[in-house]
Structures are given as C-alpha cells and as structure tokens.
Write a structure and sequence with these properties.
The chain is α+β, with helices and mostly antiparallel strands and 630 residues long. 18% of the residues lie in helices and 39% in strands. Helix 7 packs antiparallel against helix 8. The longest helix is centred in the middle third of the chain and has 25 residues.
Length: 630
C-alpha cells in the first residue's frame, strides 16, 4: 500500500470515529429539536432577550438530563436547563436567551449522566440595532412583506418577522426586541392570559401595536379590546379606502381598493389619522396602539402599502433599561454603592498599625529582653510578635468587613398610570469577606443576565433553571470583592397613580396627581423632560396640585437625595438621566421630551434571592418610574 492510499484509509477511519455518537455505541434514545429567535428562524437583537424553543423526546429509560446553550466560541454554557425525562416523554419548553454580541451560531447540547446524548447547531441572524424590527402575527406568511424595503426612522431595510401565535411569549421582555407588532386574523381571545398580558405590557413599555379590523375583526378584537382606541361595530361592505391617500404624499385615491371595513367609535383621547377613521390611534403607556378598520390584506395590491405604514409608524425612543445597561457594561449598583466594607482603611489607621509594629518589634521588644537579661530570646520573641501582628491585622478585616456575605440591591420599576403591572430591572450585588462560591436562586420568572458586571467588564456566568427556580449555581466571589448580577422580572406591585393634567400652549403642565393605591412613594417628583416639580412624600389617598413651567431645566442637576442605607440615591438619578442613556438624540433626561413621569422611592426591595439555600438580609432601594397619560 503506497503512502497516499494509507493516508486515505486513516482519514476515513478518523472521520468514522468523529461521527460516532458521543455517548458510546448505538444511537441515543434522546432526540432534540431546536428553534431559536423571535420568528423561530434565528432572528434576534443584541442585548435583548429572545426565546429558544426546544422539543426533547425520550425513547429509552427514565433519565435526568440538562440542556446547555452555548454561543459559538464559548467554552461554558450560557444557559443550562434541567429536566426529568421519563420513558416515552416528549417535552416542549421555551427558555430565554440573551447575546451581548452578534453571534451567528449556537450549540444546544443534551447531556445525561455526564455524557452528551444529542447536539444541535442553531443558526442565528442578528438584527442591526438601528433597524426597525416588525413582528407579524398572521396565518398569511407573506402579509406585509412589502415593508421589508421601507425606510423607517432613517434606517434602510426593515426585518419582517412572522411569529407563530401559539408560541408568543408569556413575558414582555421576550418581545422587547420588536418595535412594531401587527396582529391579523388570529383569535386573540384564545391566546393564553399570560400572552395577552405580555402584549399589553410590551405596548406600555414603548411598543407599537397595530390590530387588523375588517374581515379580521371578529378574530383580532375580542382579546385586545381594552387596548384599542375605538369601540368596534358592525362590518360595512364595499367601503372606499380612498381617505388613506391623504397619508401618502402624491398618491392618487383612485388607486385604493374598495373593501369591507369595521364601523368604529373613538374612545376618549383617541385620534383618527384620516377623515374616515380608517386608521385610529392612541397612546398606551409609553407605546401606541393603532386600529385599522380594514383587513391588512386589502392593501396588498396597492403600490403605496409600505409607504403608508412607514408614515404612520414613527418609532420613538424607549426606556429599555436592561438593554441600555448591557450595551454599555454599566453597573448602576457599583456607581451608587456606599458600602463601608468596600472602603480602604484610612491612612491614619495604617500609620498607627505600622508605627505600633515598629515600636513593639523594635525598641519595646529589645528593652524588655534587656531588662530581663535575656536578649538572646529575640530570636524567638521577634517571630512571635510578627505572627501576632499578622493575626491581628487579619482578624481586623473580619471586624471591618464581617464574616457574612452582604447582599445589596438597586431596583428600578417602570410603571404606568392606573396600572399595578410593571417591569423590574434590578442590580443585585454580593460582597464576600472571604473567597467563596455562592448559590443564588430566584423565582422562575426572573431573567438573570448570564454574566456579572465588574469594572466595566462583562464576566460570563452560566444561568441554570429547572422551571421552578432560576439562578446561578456557583458565583465565585473573591476576598473582599463585589460581583453584580442584572435581573429583570414583571411585577404586579406598582403604586397606583391617577392624574388629571393638561398642557397649555406655552408648555406649562398643570392639574392634579393622586396616589390611589396602598403603596406610598417617598421623595416623589413630577418630571417632564428636563423639568421637575417636587411632590414630596405621597401616602395613600394623597393629592398634589401641579404647576410645572416648561423652562426650568432643573432635572436632574438641581435635585439631591439623601443616602438610602448604603445607596447614594442622587448618584442613581444622575447615572440614569444626566446622559444620553436611552437614545442618541436625547441629551439628558427622559427620551420623550413630552412624556410625563412620577418618580418616587420605596423602602421595599423588588426581588428576593435565596443565597446558599437561605434568605440573607438585604440592603438597598427601589426607584419607581411611573409614566402618566400625557
């Protein structure tokens, strides 16, 4: 056999060995199917959460297994999901994933008994941050594809993602990467309550929801009626849509079709975008809901379809706190933390320690031994004194820093007028007086960013879940070090605020703000852009009169807050609003110059962890950002 033939044989043998199942001989009884991204085709946005759907089947004996998600090039798993697989089981589950850079592939591995049983490569397609991302929930896979070439917010190319209504997420955070959501010919009343709640919460956080009427109204309206700007009535066949031409420059009304439309009655505060109320809109929280009295498909043959939607969908900046912090690797807790254990010893204390050491080891030791006429014992007393000072210095660290971990938390809760539902974004810090690995467990709905924020670096960490508990199994904290996790979760504990506010022609905001819920707010402010009025401490039932001129420019620079425990509250406000954190066009303050917010503090902490299986005392504060109807 010549050398070339030998090399061919060896290559075939090596390829055969590599192709063998990783678990040993024979095919694995465990199989794996993976679909990732908003549209299950891999589309996602960097620093936003997106869903991964996995189906696992077991044709063998009962087994305990874990799913591990790794982005390309990562040695450790980003997410590990543990599950029981009895014989004959076929389980489908969806878990959240977040990428802090534009990965193109990821690997999902199924491990049982320490052996890899199955492995699937997931293709990913990151979406550029400037691009407006549109989700379409419809049984028509080509609906609104004309928008793919539209220019919205000066960004060319618009990703159109067709979403499966059966797999719409139950958490608004998994929709946050979408800017617009079109809903067409889908029975919204048959969606799970959690899915409808997620759509409503996503809208209030700044999303734009567009709902189809006309022949689709009987399906789309029932589950979303409370969000719509109109009351929807009977169908009106053979109705002209020529009024839409006014929303498109240089368009002829003769080119628009005649179709069946829904009769509508505007809700108070809603506006019609054309003279015949074919398109109506109103603000819901920081977002916007549009209702089309016609079926979206009716405009499919109109050449100006994409231009129409681009003109009526202005995308405004959103307060996406988690994404903003991840984008800049910004640790809000570290910036505001005033933990005594993190401080270095004072110069005076160090000088006293060194001086005492020199005096005792030198003159005092020598004089005592000379008085005792046993100077030769210095070979023994000097090392003992050195050891004693070393032990004293080491022991003093426990006096200064303690022996138990210290848990601190800064939480920001976004809420909306009249609503108890909101979104938590929290930084949780673990300070350890000694090198130790901690287990941190949270409720299953908490989204734990898979990494810690340390000195403007993002240190990857594996997040583990079993459907009942989510957390980090081994968070290694060095001696006298602080590691910080970023957490996100929905909440139903937002103070209920009601307002009757109007804005004069000169921009002055006046009226009343009332706290109707049972939860008080401390050091509250009313903020519009860079202008703020002090509301003080608000108790349940309190009403405050508002008279806020438009030219104060006093927020945030002219407000200071006392230290809340170990948290510098003024530093939190400055970090959030004294820079263009939310949008490049925003110099400071809130991204919407006309958005009206109530800011207030609370003593209660938003998220409770279990540390090494027990609840440790926490210190910290919670800031509420409650957007009012403006």
């Amino acid at each position: 056999m010549n050398l070339r033939s030998l090399l061919v044989v060896l290559t075939v043998i090596c390829l055969g060995l590599l192709a063998r199942p990783a678990h040993g001989q024979g095919a694995s009884p465990l199989t794996l199917e993976v679909k990732a991204g908003y549209d299950e085709s891999g589309h996602y946005r960097v620093d936003f959460w997106f869903p991964v759907t996995v189906v696992v089947a077991n044709d063998g004996p009962d087994v305990q297994a874990s799913l591990e998600w790794r982005f390309a090039g990562q040695s450790d798993a980003t997410v590990r999901y543990e599950l029981d697989l009895p014989r004959g089981a076929r389980k489908g589950l969806t878990f959240p994933v977040m990428a802090n850079e534009g990965f193109r592939t990821a690997t999902v591995t199924l491990v049982a008994g320490g052996v890899t049983q199955a492995r699937v490569l997931a293709r990913l397609d990151p979406i550029d941050v400037p691009q407006t991302t549109i989700g379409v929930v419809s049984t028509d896979p080509t609906l609104l594809n004309s928008l793919a070439g539209a220019t919205i917010n000066n960004a060319t190319g618009t990703p159109i993602l067709h979403l499966d209504p059966r797999r719409l997420p139950n958490d608004a955070a998994l929709l946050a990467g979408l800017d617009v959501l079109f809903i067409h010919n889908v029975a919204t009343a048959e969606l799970a309550p959690e899915q409808r709640a997620a759509i409503a919460a996503w809208t209030r956080m700044g999303g734009q929801l567009v709902v189809s009427g006309g022949t689709s109204a009987a399906q789309t309206v029932p589950g979303l009626a409370e969000l719509l700007p109109v009351t929807v009535g009977a169908l009106q066949p053979n109705t002209s849509t020529a009024a839409l031409a006014t929303l498109v420059t240089n368009s002829s009304s003769k080119l628009l079709p005649t179709t069946t439309v829904s009769a509508v009655t505007l809700q108070p505060g809603a506006t019609k975008l054309d003279r015949n109320s074919l398109l109506t809109a109103w603000d819901v929280g920081a977002g916007r809901v549009l209702f089309a009295a016609f079926d979206f498909a009716a405009l499919r043959t109109w050449a100006e379809e994409a231009t129409l939607w681009a003109n009526v969908l202005p995308i405004t900046p959103r307060i996406a706190l988690g994404q903003a912090f991840r984008l800049h690797n910004d640790n809000l807790l570290r910036n505001a933390l005033n933990l005594p254990a993190l401080r270095l010893p004072s110069i005076g204390l160090l000088l006293l320690l060194v001086s005492s050491y020199i005096v005792v080891v030198g003159p005092v030791n020598f004089l005592l031994l000379r008085r005792l006429r046993r100077v030769e014992l210095a070979w023994v007393t000097t090392p003992l004194l050195v050891l004693g000072f070393t032990a004293a210095a080491y022991g003093s660290t426990f006096v200064i820093r303690g022996v138990q971990p210290q848990i601190t938390q800064v939480a920001i809760i976004q809420g909306y007028e009249g609503q108890t539902q909101g979104q938590i974004t929290a930084f949780l810090g673990v300070f350890s007086p000694q090198r130790h690995s901690y287990r941190l467990d949270f409720a299953p709905e908490v989204l734990v960013t898979p990494g810690t924020f340390e000195n403007f670096r993002f240190q990857p960490t594996t997040v583990t879940s079993d459907g009942n508990v989510t957390g980090v199994r081994e968070l290694l904290v060095d001696v006298s070090a602080l590691r910080t996790l970023l957490l996100e979760a929905p909440t139903n504990a937002v103070p209920v605020v009601q307002s009757t506010l109007t804005t004069d022609r000169d921009g002055t905001v006046h009226g009343q703000v009332r706290l109707t819920g049972e939860r008080p707010l401390r050091d509250a402010l009313l903020v519009v852009g860079s202008n703020a009025q002090v509301l003080g401490d608000l108790q349940a039932g309190a009403t405050v009169s508002i008279n806020l001129p438009p030219d104060l420019a006093n927020f945030p620079d002219q407000f200071s807050f006392s230290t809340d425990g170990v948290i510098e509250r003024s530093q939190i406000i400055n970090s959030l609003f004294n820079a263009n954190r939310f949008d490049e066009s925003s110099l400071q303050g809130f991204p919407e110059t006309d958005g009206v917010y109530v800011l207030g503090w609370a003593d209660s902490l938003a998220i409770e962890p279990r540390t090494d299986g027990k609840v440790e005392p926490q210190q910290g504060t919670t800031l509420y950002l409650i957007r009012l109807k403006s």
